C-alpha cells in the first residue's frame, strides 16, 4: 500500500453515529479483530481481549446502561460555561442511534500486563503504556472497519465507573480486566460532513518550540468552543 492509499483510508475513517440495520458479515468482524491483534503494545504485552456482541437483547441492555447515565452527564456538563459544554452532554436524550448499530465489540484491557514493561515504565507511566497499547488496537479496528466500507464509533461511556461495573456483571467479565472502550460497527447510514482539522503550520515546530505558536488559555478555550460548535451545527459530524 502506498502513502496516498494509506492517507485515503485515514481520511475515510470517521466517527459514524448512524447505522443501517443491515447485519455485518462475521468475516468482516473477524478481519477487524485480526487487525487489532497486530497492533503494537508495550513490551509486546498484547493486553487486549474482545467481546463481540451481535445479540439485540444484550446490545439493548448496554444502551440502557448508557442511557441511565445521561441525566448525570447532562447535569455535570451544565456546570461548565455553555460554549465549552461537550456536544454529548448538551441533552439527556437517550442514545437511540446507537441501538441501531448491529455489532458492538467491547475491548478489554488486562492491567496485569503493565508488569511486562521495563520497571522504570511500570512505576513511571504504566497506565499510559497500557492505555496506549489498547488505543493502538482500537484505532486499528476503526481503520480496518473503514477499509471494509463499514462505519464505526467510539462508545467511551462504557468505561465509566457505573456502566463498566454493570456491564462487567452483565457480560461476566472477570474483575481483573477492565473495559477500555467499545466500538459500534455497522454499515454507514450517510456520510459525515468534512471535519475541522487543525492546520499543519499551527502545530508543527522545527528545531525547537516556536513560542509564537503557543496558544493562550483564551485561544485554547476558543478552540474547544469552535470544535464543539462544529459538532453541534445541524448536519455536522455529531
Ligand atoms: C479517546 C476518544 C474517545 C471518544 N469517545 C467518543 C464517544 O464516546 N462517543 C462518540 O460519539 N465519539 C467519541 N469519539 C470520537 C470523536 O468525537 C471523534 O474522533 C472526533 O470528533 C473527530 O471526528 P472523526 O472521528 O469523525 O474524525 C472519541 C474519540 C476518541 C479518540
List strands and helices in order, with pairings.
Layout: H1 3-12, H2 26-37, E1 48-53, H3 56-68, H4 70-78, H5 96-99, E2 103-109, H6 119-147, E3 150-154, H7 161-171, E4 178-187, H8 200-203, H9 217-232
Antiparallel strand pairs: 1-2, 2-4, 3-4
Bound molecules: flavin mononucleotide (FMN).
Would you give an account of this structure?
- The protein has 238 residues and is α+β, with helices and mostly antiparallel strands.
- The protein has 2 domains: 3-189, 3-Layer(aba) Sandwich (NADH Oxidase), CATH 3.40.109; 201-238, no CATH class.
- It contains 9 helices and 4 strands.
- Strands 1-2-4-3 form a 4-stranded antiparallel sheet.
- Helix 2 packs antiparallel against helix 6 and helix 3 (56-68) runs antiparallel to helix 7 (161-171).
- The mean pLDDT is 94.
- Flavin mononucleotide (FMN) is lined by residues 14-15, 17, 153-157, 192, 195, 237.
Amino acid at each position: 500500500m502506498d502513502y496516498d492509499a494509506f492517507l485515503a483510508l485515514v481520511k475515510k475513517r470517521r466517527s459514524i453515529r448512524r447505522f443501517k440495520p443491515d447485519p455485518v458479515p462475521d468475516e468482516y468482524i473477524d478481519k477487524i479483530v485480526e487487525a487489532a491483534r497486530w497492533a503494537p503494545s508495550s513490551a509486546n504485552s498484547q493486553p487486549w481481549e474482545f467481546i463481540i456482541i451481535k445479540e439485540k437483547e444484550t446490545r439493548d441492555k448496554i444502551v440502557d446502561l448508557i442511557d441511565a447515565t445521561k441525566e448525570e452527564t447532562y447535569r455535570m456538563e451544565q456546570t461548565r460555561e455553555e460554549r465549552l459544554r461537550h456536544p454529548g452532554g448538551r441533552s439527556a436524550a437517550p442514545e437511540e442511534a446507537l441501538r441501531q448499530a448491529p455489532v458492538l465489540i467491547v475491548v478489554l484491557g488486562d492491567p496485569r500486563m503493565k508488569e511486562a514493561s521495563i520497571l522504570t515504565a511500570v512505576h513511571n507511566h504504566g497506565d499510559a503504556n497500557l492505555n496506549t497499547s489498547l488505543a493502538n488496537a482500537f484505532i486499528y479496528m476503526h481503520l480496518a472497519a473503514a477499509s471494509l466500507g463499514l462505519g464505526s464509533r467510539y462508545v467511551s461511556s462504557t468505561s465509566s465507573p457505573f456502566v463498566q461495573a454493570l456491564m462487567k456483571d452483565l457480560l461476566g467479565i472477570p474483575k481483573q480486566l477492565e473495559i477500555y472502550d467499545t466500538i459500534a460497527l455497522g454499515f454507514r447510514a450517510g456520510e459525515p460532513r468534512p471535519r475541522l482539522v487543525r492546520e499543519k503550520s499551527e502545530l508543527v515546530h522545527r528545531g525547537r518550540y516556536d513560542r509564537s505558536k503557543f496558544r493562550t488559555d483564551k485561544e485554547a478555550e476558543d478552540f474547544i468552543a469552535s470544535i464543539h460548535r462544529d459538532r453541534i451545527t445541524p448536519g455536522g459530524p455529531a
